[in-house]
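Reopening this ticket.

The earlier resolution said the output was attached, but the attachment link was broken on my side. Pasting everything inline this time so it's all in one place.
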Amino acid sequence: MSRLRLCALIALAASLVGPTLARAADAPTTQPALTPIPGVPTGHRPASTQPAEHNAKRHAKNLARVREGRIDLLFMGDSITEGWRDNAVWQEYYAKLNAANFGISGDTTQNVLWRVLDGEVDPKFIQPKVIVLLIGTNNVGSDSSEDIAAGIAACVRALRAKAPASRVLLLGIFPSQGAGSKWRKQIAQINSIAARLDDGDKVRYLDIGDRFIDKEGNFLPGAMKDKTHPAEPGYRLWAQAMQPLLSEMMSQPPPTTQPETEYRRGAAPPQTGPLRPNPPGRRVLRSRPASLVVDDIRSHIDSSSTPWPRPQYPSSRTA
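Inline output:
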């Protein structure tokens, strides 16, 4: 082959391959999407899973409490959790357990997620035996049931990643508004999905909503201050309903397995209990180091090609 012909072939190959390589180099790279729990669309990045600051002053107060150390029982949530306020029921059930209340009025799943990732659960200072999580009420009516469940799952994962020596007691969202209302129906949908986060060991799910209502779905007399927040008798109902499982979890040794699991594609499903149905195509749980899980949550949030607007809430947050 003549040298002239060889040079012509090389030039032709370069003209064909060059644009392809340039397009590949310019193509944006994206992080693989998380699938927090079954039923949440793959590749979907709802606003409910994106950390968002809400109350910096209260957050700073919680951080100061974390640095004091010695928290064996930690409550995380919104105003429903904040409402304990060291009342008589709190003093009776939790004061002796070195408990701390990190409930902040108006918080959503994304607000709790931001607080967890920003230091309110720091194993250098605290290693609670149990973290009680009640969140999602302030997302109801603004986000879909699947998105709210995804936000709850993100909070649970962040707690497990930041506090691998702790167990999480996830509470179902309490009843809100009137019997038969669209709020009640959405809360039931959210809770039915979130219940699947219960793994029987590191994360336990408990729905005590029926303790606040009668057979017709109406709130028990004296149990609530309004259609969302318990009164002191309601907090007693809460403490009594939660006590058996909480006592069991507080008495257990710290988890010894990997702190966090994620659903991955293409693998056989795990064994599940009655609250965790196993539909076709469910993803297997695989353990990951805590640091990678936190990074994965952040990359999942940061890698969205389409910015997610902050959700539009009703006229005022209820909890």
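Reporter confirms the inline version is readable. Residues 287 and 316 are 39 Å apart (CA to CA). The first strand starts at residue 73 and ends at 77.
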